[in-house]
Task: inverse folding
């Protein structure tokens, strides 16, 4: 088995830990914020996990082992949620949320920008760049509209 498979599992576990932090902290804010955060993470995770499964297969794992290892990385999410709940301040959830949500959202923004911006800068076709920028703006608009309802 190639080391890339194990590195992918480690990165996926850390990613799932931050997702667990974000979901639990969001539910501490309100049910609405919690459900919106959960839906956003689920929409992100479906293609992400399929890609990780393919990486594990390419690294030499058989299908059953890759599936078991992918499921084991989900424990990182549970640990993240437990950590967020246990980190609540005696003064209330507000102090917990005050550092968890900026930490997780900043991490998500950093990863997204590190992945997206270099691709945009390397794009030779201006029409493709415009389409990608419009889709990014559409995503931002959807988030703003959902936050207003």
Result:
């Amino acid at each position: 088995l190639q080391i890339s498979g194990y590195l992918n599992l480690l990165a996926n576990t850390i990613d799932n830990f931050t997702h667990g932090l974000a979901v639990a902290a969001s539910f501490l804010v309100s049910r609405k914020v919690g459900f919106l955060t959960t839906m956003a993470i689920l929409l992100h995770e479906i293609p992400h996990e399929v890609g990780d499964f393919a990486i594990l297969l390419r690294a030499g794992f058989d299908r059953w082992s890759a599936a078991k290892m992918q499921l084991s990385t989900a424990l990182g999410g549970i640990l993240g949620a437990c950590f967020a709940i246990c980190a609540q301040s005696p003064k209330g959830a507000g102090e917990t949320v005050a550092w968890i949500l900026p930490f997780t959202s900043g991490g998500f923004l950093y990863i997204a920008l590190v992945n997206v911006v270099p691709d945009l800068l390397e794009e030779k076709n201006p029409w493709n760049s415009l389409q990608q920028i419009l889709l990014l703006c559409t995503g931002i608009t959807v988030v703003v509209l959902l936050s207003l309802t």
The chain has a mean pLDDT of 85. Residues 71 and 146 are 30 Å apart (CA to CA). Helices lie at 3-29, 31-58, 63-73, 75-86, 93-122, 126-148. Residues 1-148 form one domain.
